[in-house]
Design goal:
alpha/beta; 5-stranded parallel beta sheet; 13 helices
Length: 295
């Protein structure tokens, strides 16, 4: 039996090593254009992968589904979830909302999100991302979408203190070619993209990856199209009893990465922090407003 808390994508990847060569060929075909590649008939899915129809039937059962219809039903639910707008999400939550206070319901949802995300997060991916971010020979760029841009800016704000060569990419899409022009092979771009994915971010990622730029992606469990070009992917659970998706688990992971990088480079980071404080104190232009004297 397949857990309803896991996407079909996650199930395929978790059980990939136990598949036969023909089933792996089918799995690769499904993953190549997920989830659309699994929305056709069982015959069409088999033909697209170059395998037999019985192979499709066997593999979906091996993944834990009763049959192809149930497998496909899960894909339809996932597809609907990725394109849901805030009103649809609110109505879905409100229709089955219990009588408990919103604080309790929200806390329970966020706790579940954190638990589920951590249970599937690859520690090696976390460590590899932290290693890239602390390598000051690489330039690091940060970018997000309409909502997740705030997370990109938060990450950048801390990293620019910890290390040099950190850049926040403008929200003005027309300026992105100039950023790409300055990226060198081996540089890093951190991208935030959650459901209702933004095509411009996928185009940016594809172009950057073609030039040898390493991509770290923060996305949801359904996975942004950017994932096709990313070397390191963090898939977060974002469901909440709200019209909006939750960023709590994403922020948790960002702050854990900030600490991992800071701890590994503490001597350099401390020097930069001291220098920054000196600049604040010496420069009238950047002088901080004294408490109680904000205007």
């Amino acid at each position: 039996m397949t857990s309803s808390s896991h996407t079909v994508l996650e199930v395929i990847r978790q059980r990939y090593d136990g598949l036969t060569p023909a089933e792996k060929r089918l799995a690769d075909s499904l993953l190549e254009n997920y989830p659309v590649s699994g929305l056709g008939s069982i015959t069409a899915t088999a033909d697209n992968a170059g395998v037999s129809t019985p192979t499709v039937a066997r593999m979906v059962q091996k993944l834990g589904y009763k049959g192809y219809p149930e497998f496909q039903a899960h894909l339809h639910v996932e597809l609907e979830a990725t394109i849901s707008n805030p009103i649809t999400k609110h109505d879905r939550w409100a229709s089955g909302a219990p009588t408990a206070h919103i604080l309790n319901r929200f806390a329970e949802a966020i706790t579940d999100n954190l638990r589920e995300t951590l249970s599937t997060m690859d520690v090696a991916t976390f460590d590899a991302a932290a290693a890239l971010l602390r390598d000051d020979k690489r330039s690091v760029y940060f970018v997000g979408g309409r909502i997740t841009g705030a997370l990109a800016e938060y990450f950048f704000t801390h990293m620019q203190v910890i290390r040099p060569r950190a850049t926040l990419i403008s929200t003005n899409r027309s300026s992105w070619p100039q950023y790409l022009l300055n990226m060198s092979e081996g540089d890093v771009i951190v991208i935030f993209d959650i459901r209702r994915y933004e095509q411009e971010l996928a185009t940016l990622a594809e172009t950057a990856a073609a030039n040898g730029v390493v991509i770290i992606l923060f996305t949801d469990v359904w996975a942004s199209p950017v994932a096709r070009h990313a070397q390191h992917v963090f898939k977060m659970r974002i469901e909440a009893p709200s019209a909006w998706d939750s960023s709590v688990v994403t922020l948790f992971t960002v702050e854990a990465l900030i600490e991992a990088v800071q701890s590994a480079t503490w001597e350099k980071t401390r020097e930069r922090m001291n220098s920054l404080e000196t600049l604040f104190e010496r420069s009238r232009l950047f002088r901080r407003t004294a408490p109680g004297r904000e205007r």
